[in-house]
């Protein structure tokens, strides 16, 4: 349920990019198993290889626009490129840095022996996609969150009602109060020099 809800949350921005955390998690999971099956220097080089592979999508999405539009095109055309002439405009996937560094933290902990490899990929995926921390963090060590996800919690009706009540109150605060206040505040932030401190 957590994976489905978190995937919906992640994909709400751009459904195409939902595949990215799944692929990265699968890569991190297999990489940790691969690292754990080696010893000595071989174990270290497997860690380096896994971290490099995990960083490649992050580097691709972060630097492709710059590399092509701001570096290669001006070099080929011998002039600067205007905004309308830019050939590549890749959107940076939501939370890609967070996902990448969380998975690196997992494989490093497995390498150091601080955490056992996760036998089932679904638990690691739940850890990576955990939506309350997916966008803003912080990066939690696997030992801080994974055992809590695996713990078999009783499913009482009272807990569901309490959770839905808290969620509804938060939604009401956002829709009724925050959105209304933002209508007043947004024009001030848009042109702060037009207002005095008393307005």
Automatic annotation (TrEMBL):
* Keyword Transferase attributed: no
Locate the transmembrane regions by residue number. 12-32, 44-63, 90-111, 123-140, 160-177
GO MF annotation terms: acyltransferase activity
Look up keyword Chloroplast and say if it applies.
no
This protein's species is: marine metagenome
Query: What does the record list as coiled-coil region(s)?
Result: none
What is the designated name of this protein?
Uncharacterized protein
Q: Which UniProt keywords apply?
A: Membrane, Transmembrane, Transmembrane helix
């Amino acid at each position: 349920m957590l994976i489905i809800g978190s995937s919906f949350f992640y994909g709400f921005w751009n459904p195409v990019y939902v595949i990215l955390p799944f692929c990265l998690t699968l890569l991190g999971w297999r990489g940790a198993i691969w690292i754990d099956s080696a010893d000595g220097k071989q174990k270290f080089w497997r860690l380096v290889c896994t971290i490099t592979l995990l960083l490649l999508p992050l580097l691709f999405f972060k630097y492709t626009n710059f590399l092509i539009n701001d570096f290669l095109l001006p070099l080929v055309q011998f002039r600067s490129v205007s905004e309308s002439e830019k050939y590549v405009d890749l959107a940076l996937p939501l939370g890609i840095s967070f996902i990448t560094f969380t998975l690196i933290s997992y494989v490093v902990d497995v390498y150091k022996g601080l955490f056992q490899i996760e036998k089932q990929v679904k638990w690691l995926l739940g850890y990576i996609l955990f939506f309350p921390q997916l966008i803003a963090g912080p990066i939690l060590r696997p030992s801080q969150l994974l055992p809590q996800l695996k713990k078999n919690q009783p499913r009482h009706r009272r807990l569901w009602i309490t959770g839905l009540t808290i969620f509804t109150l938060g939604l009401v605060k956002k829709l009724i109060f925050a959105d209304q206040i933002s209508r007043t505040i947004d024009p001030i932030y848009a042109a702060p020099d037009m207002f005095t401190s008393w307005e």
